[in-house]
Write a structure and sequence with these properties.
This protein has about 210 residues and is an alpha+beta fold. The chain has helices at about 1-5, 10-20, 30-35, 35-40, 45-50, 55-70, 75-85, 85-100, 100-125, 180-190, 205-209, and strands at about 130-135, 140-145, 150-155, 170-175. It has eleven helices and four strands, in the order H-H-H-H-H-H-H-H-H-E-E-E-E-H-H. The radius of gyration is 20 Å and the shape is elongated.
Length: about 210
């Protein structure tokens, strides 16, 4: 990926967090700046070009671009976050992301999973071997796969600082699979989903293997 090879995300984030005050432990307070959830998700370029408050619009644009980075290249943002040498910046970014962004990104991801699950159920008809249950409040997805009237179940938990910190994959119930094979599957899944746009893409693998 060119974005990764050129380290564009790293340079961009360092610039953003210098401007927004994280490097001096004084991150921008979005509520006081008048930037709400809708503005985090979408930046109105017409409003920006016609506004007389250039600083506010610059902040709005940077906030939106950071949200889009978390949404569409989370692995690259997390890579920068884990390797940043400035611990003061890291601490400020982690808390700021958890407060203003993580819930929005998690909500987007869980809505995607809900839509995918509904489409899967409509295609499966009466042969519903994979069952998905979503808990938006706790940011969890339960995936149950039926084998001979029994279910093997895993749960995926999004952390408070998602996607900056690791998504947790936990076994709830194992059936018809050797314990070593099952543990390897959980470990492989835990590792693989850290680098995807959606931590739930692997459910397709879970469905057909």
């Amino acid at each position: 990926m060119q974005i990764d090879a050129g380290d564009y995300i790293g340079s961009f984030l360092e610039f953003v967090f210098d401007v927004l005050g994280h490097s001096t432990a004084s991150p921008l307070k979005l509520d006081k700046e008048g930037i709400d959830n809708a503005m985090i998700r979408k930046c109105d370029m017409v409003a920006i070009t016609s506004s007389e408050s250039s600083q506010h619009e610059m902040y709005w644009l940077m906030v939106n671009l950071y949200y889009l980075s978390l949404r569409y290249v989370p692995g690259l943002v997390k890579k920068w976050y884990k390797t940043c040498d400035n611990r003061q910046t890291v601490k400020a970014v982690g808390a700021w992301t958890a407060k203003w962004f993580s819930a929005l990104v998690a909500e987007d991801i869980l809505e995607e999973v809900a839509r995918w699950s509904e489409e899967l159920e409509s295609r499966a008809g009466d042969e519903k071997t994979l069952r998905i249950k979503i808990s938006k409040n706790s940011r969890e997805v339960f995936a149950a796969y039926e084998i001979d009237d029994m279910e093997m179940v895993i749960v995926i938990r999004l952390p408070p600082e998602y996607p900056l910190n690791i998504v947790e994959v936990q076994s709830i119930n194992r059936v018809a699979i050797p314990e070593k094979t099952w543990n390897n599957f959980i470990a492989h899944t835990q590792g693989a989903i850290q680098f995807t746009v959606s931590p739930f893409l692997f459910l397709i693998h879970f469905r057909y293997n």
